[in-house]
Structures are given as C-alpha cells and as structure tokens.
Amino acid sequence: MRDTTEALAELAGMLLDRMDDEGWPEAPALLAVADDPELRPDGRLLHALSLAGKGDPVEVLCHQQADPTWDVVGVRVQGWTVPAPLLDDVDWRTLTRDGPRLAEHPARQRVDMLHLVSRDGAVALAMAPDGAGTEVHTAADGSSDKGPVGPLVDGLRRMFGLATPPCPVPPVELWAIHWLEDACASHRRGVLRSWRLTAGRHPAVQLMASADPTLRHATIADIDPVEHLVAAGRALARVHDWNRLQLAVATGEWGAHLMTSAVASWADAGMFARLVLRGLPPLWALVRDVEQRASPSVRAEVLSTLDAWDLDWTPPTTTTRTSA
Fold it and tell me: Which of 25, 118, 123, 320 could join 140 via S-S bond, C-beta 3.0 to 4.6 A?
C-alpha cells in the first residue's frame, strides 16, 4: 500500500461507501484490509469480525493477531455528530461523565464511522452522517507522536505492535482527580467547608494514614494534610506512577474494575493511561464542582494546590465531533 495518509484516507472513504453492500458487516465490526488484488480479486476486505454483543471492543481487539497479509486494520462504529457551526453552543460543563453527551444535543445526527490504521502507523477516518455524503479525514502520517487517540484507534495501533501517542496527563493529575471526586462526593458531610477535611481526602493522605510502607519511604511520616499535601501528592505520583499502575493491573494486583489483565499487558503506556482516565471526570469538571460546593477559602486552597502541582484545570475550547 502507498505509504501516505492520502492513500489511506482514500481507502477509508471507498470502504465506507461500500459498507451497505450485501455481505459487509454491520457496526461495530473489525476489518482487515490488504492491497494485493490477488488475495481477494473482488475487493480489498480480507477479514471481518462482528464486535456486536462481545462487550468492550478493546477486549476483543487485544486477542486478535494481525496476519502478515494485512496492510490495514479498521473498526466500523456508529455514533453521533453535531454540525461544526453548532458546536459553539455546546456547554462543556454538561459534558461530564454523568451529564448529557453529544447524543442528546438537539441538532445531533447519527453517523457511521470507519477508523483505519496502516501497518506504518498512518491513521484515517471516514464519516457518513445520515442524509449526507461521506467525509474523509486524513488524521496522521504515523511519524507523529501527537496523532489521534482513543480506545479504538489505540487498539488498532497495538494490533500492529505500534506505539500509541503518549498521554499528556501526569500521574499527579490522576490522583488529583481521585481526590476531588471523593471530596465532592463527601461535600454533604462538610468536607468542602473545611480545608483540613478536604486535604485529608487525598489518596496520599489516606495511604499515609494506613501506614503504607512504600510511601513512608518516599516522604514524611505522620503527615499533616494541611502542611504537607503538596509534597505528599508528588510522592504518591512518583511511587504509584503510570508504569507501576500498569504492572499492578497486568498482574492482577489491583484495578480489575478498570480493565482486564490481558488488556493492561497488551496496551502500551499511553494507551493504558487513557483507558484508566476514560471512566473518570476531567479535572476541569471537578474544579467546577468544587467552585459550586466549597467555601471560598477551600476553593482558594484547592486551586493553589493544583497550581503547585503544575496542573491545568481550564476547560477545553473545542468539542469532539463524535460520541459513539
């Protein structure tokens, strides 16, 4: 296959246009494609596997072996799209884990999507909204570490043994998310009215209180949450970083609720981190909740602590186009 993203984008559009033909799998489905007409004279599709009813598609992908004849792997899914001119009307504060999705936007459209990844790492996306023609997007050429990410695209890369782009979220932010999620859930018990109680909800302080030996080697004992929260958060992030967490999930020591050990072993660092984060609210949404529920003094202390950890809690300025 031509080693260009343009060729892959062209293929994505051609395949998606043919998806309604008899014999092609309905979404969701895994596709494998080759560019050798001798292998399949009547078309490029060599292999198709329905993902319907099989649970998490990533779990299915991790058990698939990419045949040497496959030049491209892809996943066909269906989701929702909102016309670009209307995206400015989407309130980011509603796009939290428990809030409305693009699927509930009044101008939503059903969309058929095909993600393709080539053996050299190029990525392309074709979309076909209801009542509209196919849109083809050339996403990345495989040489960049800033290409599109997500469970399915990451999983397609891993089928070829390719690295996924690194996750920009540092471990200290993961633990800050857990901290603020717990604090907001406990706000009716007065947690967000007292900075000492709020600081004491951080996982580092909780582990210190249970005399976790790894953390006692990493930082001070007998921690005062008010005085030492910043240092404790950094210490927790150093000891329980993404690599340590991935090993813990892969060996079954921790995190069975996040993903199976098979997926954790198969993922690389970037993919693993994103899989962990996909079930958590973003930091900016939790800060919004703190601002609504906490006392002014606690709000100021929370933001000061996040600043000390060099974390950015500002909401994004653009929305994703699809929500499967």
Answer: 123
